[in-house]
Design goal:
This protein is α+β, with helices and mostly antiparallel strands. The chain has one domain: Glycoside hydrolase 144 (GH144) (Glycosyltransferase, Alpha/alpha barrel), CATH 1.50.10. It contains 15 helices and 19 strands. A hairpin with a 2-residue loop joins strand 12 and strand 13.
Length: 420
């Protein structure tokens, strides 16, 4: 079934640019897997059939869907008026129907009703991903009604509540990861370099009383692997989630870090680990790489390297393709290899979330946030579509200024030692 399904789709790829096809299929996911009544977007969907039983939406996936409405209109994949109508309806329904508290959204809800799904948490980072996607749509369409909804949601976020655990730790400088009604604030905090940067930048930009020192409060741990020096290492998505929305290249914060360069170094180290292939997995190499969080034969796993190495022989293609915004040659050669040798992994929405040749396994699904990062990564490689719109927002400008970002003459540096 999988092989036949994939074969029927590859003919369209052969006649087009494979990256353009992947970008379009990612858009199709957000257009087709968003509920027709609410606009809420599924967290995941089947890749080798036209139906599935998934009914859970994620706010992060819905944020990427907001960005997709703008991208689809710009690329001519959907009529502009239709796309704007979808964006307006989605943001309205998120405001009035999506379960939330203190302006923070529950991570997962029923895509038909907006009610909390299972034991889902109110998620600080996923709320911000939604807001960044909404900003892309706001800035693209320049529509008063849409702008009003987006700006109202940004203003409704109670940043102090999430920073101080509702006031119980008033001197906190790091955000909590989330909250649940059964037991309150989660024990984990956003206190180490990761995808957290958008959370702090928007907070600094929208809440004038937020101490600017919060930007300096989270840890930046250096990792060295085979000549590459970067921050943290780990799953690739941590170096992509904020980077597809915000431009860091050529900017350094007051601690001296160019996070665009750091992300490049982490990507190169991740790829080099797969080239070295210390565990001897089938397929791993220069054109088969990309360790990130995603579906594997062992379930959903946060794969990553270097640093805290987690590797079971599975790659997450969307993360490797997302790197096209920094490394077009590496991304294209990976796509060419997958199409030539792993065509069975290519389905309705492009490559499945995980591929493991050692165990002769391919995931059945695609995941919204991974498709979203890949979609925007490809678009940024073409014209900085998402980045230039998010970077034009006043709250982002203000947040980056309060974090001490400044333009520098050179865009590269010696990894985590690039102080100056």
């Amino acid at each position: 079934m999988t092989t036949l399904f994939a074969a029927s789709l590859l003919a369209t790829v052969a006649a087009s640019d494979p990256l353009e096809d992947l970008q379009r299929k990612a858009f199709d996911y957000f257009w087709e897997q968003s509920n027709s009544s609410t606009g809420f977007t599924k967290d995941r969907a089947a890749n080798f059939s036209f139906t599935d039983s998934y009914t859970v939406a994620s706010c992060a996936s819905t944020g990427f869907a907001m960005a997709a409405t703008a991208l689809g209109a710009d690329r001519g994949w959907v009529d502009r008026a239709t796309a704007l109508s979808r964006a307006q309806a989605t943001i309205y329904n998120v405001r009035v129907r999506w379960a939330q508290t203190h302006g923070w959204l529950y991570h997962f809800v029923d895509w038909r009703t907006g009610q909390r799904a299972s034991a889902s948490e109110v998620s600080s980072i996923d709320t911000v991903i939604f807001l960044m996607g909404a900003i892309v749509a706001e800035k693209y369409f320049d529509d008063p009604a849409l702008t009003n909804h987006v700006e109202s949601m940004l203003s409704a976020v109670d940043w102090q509540w999430m920073l101080t655990n509702g006031g119980s730790i008033p001197n906190s400088k790091t955000f909590c990861m989330g909250w649940v009604p059964e037991s309150g604030f989660l024990g984990s905090r956003w206190d180490n370099y990761s995808e957290l940067m958008g959370l702090y930048i928007l907070g600094l930009g929208k809440w004038p009383a937020m101490p600017s020192s919060c930007w300096d409060a989270w840890s930046r741990h250096g990792v060295v692997y085979d000549g590459y020096q970067c921050l943290t290492g780990g799953p690739l998505f941590m170096h992509q989630m904020t980077h597809v929305f915000m431009a860091f290249d050529g900017r350094r914060d007051r601690q001296g870090y160019d996070y665009g360069f750091e992300a490049k170094q982490a990507t190169l180290a991740n790829r080099k680990y797969c080239v070295n292939n210390p565990k001897g997995y089938v397929g791993f190499g220069a054109n088969f790489w990309g360790l990130s969080a995603g579906d594997t034969p062992d379930g959903y796993v946060a794969l990553g390297a270097p640093g805290n190495i987690v590797d079971n022989g599975t790659i997450i293609p969307t993360s490797a393709v997302c790197s096209v915004q920094e490394f077009p040659t590496y991304a294209r050669s990976l796509v060419d290899n997958l199409l030539a040798n792993y065509s069975y992994s290519y389905g309705r929405y492009g490559f499945s979330n995980g591929i493991n040749p050692t165990r002769i396994w391919v995931g059945n699904d695609v995941i919204g946030i991974d498709l979203g990062m890949m979609m925007l990564g490809i678009s940024n490689s073409q014209d900085e579509f998402a980045r230039k719109r998010v970077m034009s927002h006043q709250a982002v400008k203000q947040g980056m200024a309060r974090a001490g970002f400044r333009l520098v003459e050179f865009k590269s540096g010696p990894g985590t030692s690039q102080q100056g």
